[in-house]
Amino acid sequence: MMNFKFKLMITRSQSLIIITLLIAAYYLVCGIYLNSLGYFNQESLFYVEKTRIIFEGVGYKLKVIGLTAPAIPFFATFAFTPVSSLLAPVIASALGTAALFYLMATTLIKKTDDDYYLLLLILIFLFHPGLLYTACSGKAIYMALIFFYMFFLNIFKFYTSNTTFHISIASICLVVLLFCDYKFIWLTLFFIPLIFSIALQSLNLAEKESLFRMTQSFNSPSLRRKLINKTFAMYVILFILPITSIICYKLLNLANANDTDYFLNSPYATWNVLAERLMYEKTALRPDFKTPETSLLISMRMIMFCPLILFAITLFWRSTYQILTLLTPFAFVEFLHIKYEKVILVHEYYLMFLILAILCFAIKAQPLKNSFWFKSVLTIIILVQFYTGYYFLANSLIDDERNFITVLKDRTPDEQQDENHDMANYINGLPDGSKVLIDDAIAYPIVAFTNDVGNLTLPYQENFLSAIETPNQYVGYILIANTKNALAGYTILNARYAPVMYQTGNNYSTLQKAYETEHWALYKLY
């Protein structure tokens, strides 16, 4: 009988691997198809451009390798760049989201042998618009969700095992999470008071209620000393590694870029510096613009997106620490809204509530597995979430999110990158050996679409500033952002660039416009 059960578990595990591979194939087909329709987003093109610099560029590239952020998703695209540089982020996100499914399904089948819950999980990963966006867009959301899930999974494991090993693993997951999205550093603020509750819960006391446990601990000198020591130890275990990692990374930025926050503030290091600013400015200029959080708490929007999280919280209504843990992401997004008031929250922060809700049901599936009404309500809520997932993407203020669901629904070509394609194709058709001066702070989509990055003079190269001052000695062409380009003010290569304004000046070569689009102009030097 024992051997039969062991074989049955192996068979189930193998079946899960097959399902994961099929889901990965499904994501790859969808992602490649959307890519063929012309769907790209700023983040994936940024990764494409930086990886092409590393593999094909000429010059000192260590700064690009070490300081491009977010670092972990950027490195994840390396393995797939030899397959196709443009498809590398899509392949990484497709396989990464399939890996997220495998991790969650593994947790689920360990808790229950009821395959109905596994079927629901499969349906969520196959049809939820937000998870399709995660898998097929080429964005780094998948990596953040994986380690967000692992972080909270180990926190919950600690509650049941009361061993600090899981806190140590959670700390490692938090480190990786910070290098996937630095904004998660603020999540730690809300774990500082929670750590005290966790330490209190870990004491071996007969009392179960938090208030009585606290009273008993404070009244006893030995228990008070033990509580203080445990609290301090847990602070060290959970936070010392993330803090040390961030300090070291900031010192690396200081040593190589003379700025500890280079990876946060430089458009050469991260894609979202200008993207977030431009998106807010474009949105704020709309006549009908109204910040969605002005009349409604952002937490309520998260609940509207993921009503499953409320249902999940009710499963722990007798567990104070678990409920406090589940409430920390709500405090986190409220804090982000206050601190980054001119930044629209991206879909990643909505999806983390879906992941957290699924984790709760995976943990609590076993005691409730035979409840018909529980399964019925759960199924209905999941079906509702398919609609809310679609609604939030279709009505998003962020162009990349809205374009994705439009292309996915209509299956029509996306023309958002056509202009960048046209300019890149013209550059590709220049005579062999033609050097082009480009500032990839804003022109990285064009660089991503070019055939030969080695012929481009870019800011990472030591001769870039010299080429800016005396372009005729270094390049034959200059790419200029014209006055209609919303990002023209963020680059020196714009209509106010001296060689363009004073074409017949003392030391400037004669420039002639070789090719022009609505937002870009390519000049040839004579």
From TrEMBL:
Keyword Acyltransferase: no
Domain of life: Bacteria
This protein's record includes keyword Transmembrane helix: yes
Keyword vocabulary terms for this entry: Membrane, Transmembrane, Transmembrane helix
Residue ranges of the TM segments: 16-40, 60-80, 86-104, 116-134, 140-156, 163-179, 185-206, 227-252, 296-317, 349-366, 372-393
Name of the protein in question: Dolichyl-phosphate-mannose-protein mannosyltransferase
Organism: Mucilaginibacter panaciglaebae
The organism's taxonomic lineage, starting at the top: Bacteria, Pseudomonadati, Bacteroidota, Sphingobacteriia, Sphingobacteriales
